[in-house]
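Database export, one record per block. Field names are fixed; values are copied verbatim from the stored entry.
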Amino acid sequence: MKIGRTTLVLICLVSSAVGAFGAEGWKVASVTKKFPNGLVVVVSEDHSAPTFGLCISYRIGFRLEPEGRTGFAHLFEHMMFEGTPDSPKGTFDRVIEGGGGSNNADTRYDFTEYLDTAPVSALEPVLWLEADRLKGLDFSPEHLDNQRKVVEEEVRVNVLDAPYGLFYAIDLPGKAYDRFPNAHNFYGDFKDLDAAKIEDVEAFFHHYYAPNNAFMAIAGDVTPADVFAKVEKYFGGIAPRQVPPKPDLTEAPQTAERRFTQQDKLAHVPALAIGYRMPPRNSHDAVVGALVGELLHNGQASLLYQALVKEKKVAVEVSGGVNFVFGNPFEYDGPTLLTSFIVYPPDLKEEAVLTAYDAALQDLAMHGPGEEALTRIRSKMQSDWYSNMEIPLDRASLLSHATLLDGSPGRVNEIPDELARITPEEVQAFASKYLVKTNRTIINRVPAPSAGQNAGGQKGAR
């Protein structure tokens, strides 16, 4: 996973857009075309700078990978940079970076995206490169072994050898959900990665990397007619493929709180991960939930930071939100959680932290947010959304995801208006309905006792 988007960020602050942050007027214009082979392309024309951003998203993410293939979605993000029969390894980066641009990729729960940005003069070479690797990769055991080692090292660095090991993003869904797609270790079990043969990887590619499973968006100094002509030239001859059906992601309703304790040999202080199941995406409740997630967790002015760290001093760190860590609160296509990650002092018990935490949520349910806090969070979320849509690469990413998830890029223009309509009463109602004990899962991650403590018979975690 290429974490950290080291892209050429060409921020072109369009005065009309900046002035529209507080208004209902600014909308991103786009034109969409579906090609005969199933590829969907969205173009957003913006001549404020001679650059473009391109995002091509494939409908294959963590939760869509088959059983026995855990980690394949992530592995394949890396394999896509291993070269093709016509452009050996290194060609992709060399051509784009040599043209003054940059590229990246990342894997989410419901898709994998590939990102390119460069001066507009590089558009045609970039399209050729993207089409070339969609046609077929240089499948070799050497490349598989190379990227398998890269992925496994990433797992070691981010999970196995790191305090807390992303337990609030990996372990928590595994405890909160019951179906394999939602509950498995998306980073990949080493046994699955080690057992993978080149034939397995090639089959995975042909199942999911297909034009009829791809959603491309290009934003910047381009015209729809020119982009569509170039896409037809390079992608038009790639035949559609048989894409596996989407797995069943439905979960039985949760009826009781789920509680777990884990030991952590690398952590020095304990931490809690608390996850609440969220309503279906794009329901109005889900948009309210996105705002509530920010209201509770966004910075030192957030409700939980003020209550737990500043006032009651039962926590030293608080973070979280909806679809936390791997995505934003509007871009997912299955069950997701509103997550709180809380690091707390070692001299406190789990129950003391939870008592203060529950009191903060109960206060929100009973009294709602203050008008100042609601306005601040609502304005920040709208401003962040508009700011992303100004940057060609980020706009292309949002348009590509909206088209994949919603069937239309128009969703990007609806979210700021929906946020503007949220009332304090709706926040109260959301907290009362969803932020309840029967709808949550808790993991208490505690430092593992030392060998000396075990030898002395001290009691470990339950």
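Remark 1: The longest helix spans residues 141-160.
Remark 2: DSSP finds 18 helices and eleven strands in the chain.
End of record.
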